[in-house]
């Protein structure tokens, strides 16, 4: 599988995917941390991909999402936005509602990290 | 890059809009931009932010903007 296909697979298969700088245990950027906290606060399960190991990851991701910055958050394959939108939607309650709709209210909140490339 | 240069790009992209640019750290590479424009009316937040990202594509791509925070508002 090409790198782009691997990225697409994460986006398609994971209920909530975040492409971030660093890992949930060790975020390497304030915006990635903000997005993570907003997701966690909205009760989202989180699958994280660290884009830092290979600059190619970020290039391929931005090419397929048409979104230039990191982090990027996807719910059920759909781009929700970066840190600002994720925070805004979390604060308004829209994110929790969206997650309830997409994943059901009884979802398990686990955090995992997957590697691509 | 000075906040003024960012503001000029946004003014050009959103001629009707009100644009505010804040250099968050004073270092000329961490910006908070706030744009209110009728271009955003009826668009999703993702599409609204895409318009701002497109207006700032060049400084984003060449790294002069290291971090960008965006707030958008429609007029409706």
Head-to-tail CA distance between termini of chain A: 9 Å
In CATH, what is the homologous superfamily of chain B? BolA-like
Q: What percent of the residues of chain B sit in helical stretches (DSSP H or I)?
A: 25-40%
Tell me about the biggest sheet of chain A?
Answer: 5 strands, mixed
Mean pLDDT of chain B: 95
Order of helices and strands of chain A: HEHEHEEHHE
CATH class of chain B: Alpha Beta
CATH architecture of chain A: 3-Layer(aba) Sandwich
What percentage of the residues of chain A does DSSP assign to strands (E)?
15-25%
CATH class of chain A: Alpha Beta
Low-confidence stretches of chain A: none
Secondary structure class of chain B reads: alpha+beta
Question: Structural class, from secondary structure content of chain A?
Answer: alpha/beta
Oligomeric state of shown chains: heterodimer
CATH topology of chain A: Glutaredoxin
Short note summarizing the structure:
The complex is a heterodimer of chains A (117) and B (76). With 117 residues, chain A is α/β, with parallel strands linked by helices.
Structure commentary:
The complex is a heterodimer of chains A (117) and B (76). Chain A is an alpha/beta fold and 117 residues long. Chain A has a single domain, classed as Glutaredoxin. Chain A contains 5 helices and 5 strands. Chain A has a 5-stranded mixed beta sheet with strand order 4-3-1-2-5, with helices on both faces. Chain B is built from 3 helices and 3 strands. Chain B has helices at residues 3-13, 45-55, 57-61; strands at residues 18-23, 30-36, 67-73. Chain B has a 3-stranded mixed beta sheet. The longest helix of chain B is centred in the N-terminal third of the chain and has 11 residues, at 3-13. The radius of gyration of chain B is 12 Å and the shape is globular. Chain B starts with a helix and ends with a strand. The model of chain B has no long low-confidence stretch (mean pLDDT 95). Chain A binds chain B through residues 29-31, 66-69, 79-85, 88-89, and chain B through 45-46, 49-50, 53, 57, 60-61, 67-71.
């Amino acid at each position: 599988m090409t790198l782009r296909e691997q990225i697409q697979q994460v986006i398609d298969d994971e209920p909530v995917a975040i492409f971030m700088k660093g890992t949930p245990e060790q975020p390497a950027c304030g915006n990635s941390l903000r997005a993570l906290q907003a997701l966690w606060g909205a009760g989202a399960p989180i699958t994280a991909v660290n884009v830092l190991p290979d600059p190619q990851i970020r290039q391929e991701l931005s090419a397929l999402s048409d979104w230039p910055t990191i982090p990027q958050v996807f719910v059920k394959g759909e781009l929700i936005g970066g840190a600002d939108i994720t925070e805004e939607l979390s604060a308004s309650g829209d994110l929790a509602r969206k997650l309830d709709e997409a994943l059901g209210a009884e979802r398990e909140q686990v955090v995992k990290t997957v590697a691509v490339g | 890059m000075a906040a003024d240069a960012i503001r000029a790009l946004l003014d050009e992209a959103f001629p009707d809009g009100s644009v505010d640019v804040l250099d968050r750290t004073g270092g000329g590479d961490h910006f908070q931009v706030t744009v209110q424009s009728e271009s955003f009316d009826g668009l999703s937040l993702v599409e609204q932010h895409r318009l701002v990202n497109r207006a700032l594509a060049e400084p984003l791509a060449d790294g002069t903007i290291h971090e960008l925070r965006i707030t958008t508002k429609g007029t409706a």
